[in-house]
Amino acid sequence: MTLISSLVVTDLFGENQGVLLSADSRITGYTESGKLTSFNNNGQKIVKLCENVSTGIAGDFFNSNNILNKITKNITKELAGRIVFFSRARVIVQLIRKTLKANWQETHSDSSFIFVIRDFTDKKGESL
Description:
By secondary structure, the protein is of the alpha+beta class. The chain is 27% helix and 34% strand. Strand 5 (46-50) and strand 6 form a beta hairpin.
C-alpha cells in the first residue's frame, strides 16, 4: 500500500505559497501469482518533473517510472528555450495528458499518479 499526501502551504495572510507532497518509500515486488518476492525502503515516489511540477506515484513502480521518464523528456523537449506567455500549467498538463495517452497500456492499470503544478500566474488556483 502506498500513502501519498499533500498539503497546501499558506503564509500568515492565507496566500498560497505552494504545496507540500509526502509519501512512504517502500517498494515491493511480486510474482505473477501474487507472492511477495522482494521489497526495499528506498523508493522515490515523489518525483520532480521540471520547475514547479512534481508527481507522486503509486502502484507498479517500474512501469510508472518508465512513463514518468517519457513525460519528463517531453516536457523538457517542448519547453526548452521557449517562453510560455500564458498559463504554463495548461501547457504542461496538455503534455502530460498527451504522453499518458500515447504510452498507457492495459498492463499499467495498477499504476496511479498525482500531479502537482505550481503556476505563479494563477494565484487563486484553477482546476485543470
